[in-house]
Amino acid sequence: MIMVGELINGSRRSIAAAIARRDAEVILETARRQAEAGAHFLDVNAGTGPEKETEDLVWLVEIISSELETPLCIDSPNPTAMKTALERAGDRGAMINSITAETGRLDSFLPLVGSDGPRIIALCMDDEGIPGDAQGRCRVAARLVEQLTGRGVSVENIYLDPLVTPVSVDGGAGRTTLETLAAIKKNLPGARTICGLSNISFGLPRRRLLNRNFLSLMLAAGLDAAILDPTDTDLMADLLATRALLGEDEHCLSYITASRNGSLTSRKEGT
Ligand code: THG
After folding, report:
1. Which amino acid residue places its CA nearest to atom 1 of ligand 1?
2. Are the CB atoms for 116 and 94 separated by under 8 Å?
3. CB 81 near ligand 1, within 6 Å
4. Would you say the CB of residue 198 lies under 6 angstroms from ligand 1?
5. What average pLDDT does this structure show over 213-241?
6. N or C end of the chain: which has fewer CB within 10 A?
7. What is the mean pLDDT of residues 48-62?
8. Which one, of 239, 227, 166, lies nearest residue 195 by Cα?
């Protein structure tokens, strides 16, 4: 399972404030904590308006790259910001987060992809928005795979995102995402899958409880990667337990090792 750290996101108040006052130490501390917790990539989302986004994203990428080798997952809908940030990220195997099948976005992002280009997250949405059911989302995914492989992108560098929306808004949202994941796995073999886990719990109490359980369900349906909080030790313990239960941890070695070094110990749940 590829873990992408979610914490450097301008929608979080502490990060937005750090970006606004150019406080490199807050960003670096957040990056370090996630890397130490085992994140394979760090999501970097400036979350600022179109006039400032390129500048802010480049600043974030440069700050993080100056200290850490961890590959970045550059999170922006803006092709100019994406292109500039990718150049600054250098040759560290970044991820593009994200393209969609919306006409304008696809056309402006396709020049950034290629056979030896970065891995690409592709969201299951098009000009009509997010399809309401799994079949519709999977059809969009198939079109994205066709477009990207047509540009020479190898299928294993494509990370399809079935899209996670809050269950507080639509009680069927979790199931639709799970069904989309299953349909992608069945119909588009070779392509990888990813999701933004914490979206599931917006607006509800004890969000981390929901995030943990949703991760287990998604892993059972074959999820390959997730954007999540790697510093959430209970979530990490659940990840290890679920992988052992699914037979994805040979001789339960990772689980046993984590138990021996104390990282499965439960902490009291706060939020
Ligand atoms: N798919 C893809 N990329 C994504 C998402 C996705 N990027 C953004 C988002 N969704 C994933 N990242 C986050 C980051 C933070 C939160 C949720 C998803 C989050 N943060 C708390 C909040 O805003 O309430 C944090 C509170 C705090 O600590 O300040 O929920 O779906 N491809």
Report:
1. 196
2. no
3. no
4. yes
5. 98
6. C
7. 95
8. 227
CB burial of 201-233 (b: ≥16 within 10 Å; e: otherwise) equals beeeeebbebbbebbbbbbebebbbbbbbbbbe
- How do strand 158-161 and strand 192-196 relate by DSSP bridges? parallel
Q: Which amino acid is residue 148, in one-letter code?
A: L
Q: Quick one: pLDDT band at residue 247, thresholds 50, 70, 90?
A: very high
Give the torsion through C-alpha atoms of 71, 76, 81, 86, to 10 deg.
20
Tokens of 24: 């490199």
State how far the Cα of 175 lies from the Cα of 67, in Å rounded to an integer.
40
Cβ of 196 closer than 6 Å to ligand 1, yes or no, is yes
- The answer to whether 205 and 166 have CB atoms below 8 angstroms apart is no
Return the closest-CA partner of residue 153 out of 204, 205, 111, 203. 111
CB half-sphere exposure, 254, CA atoms < 13 A: 15
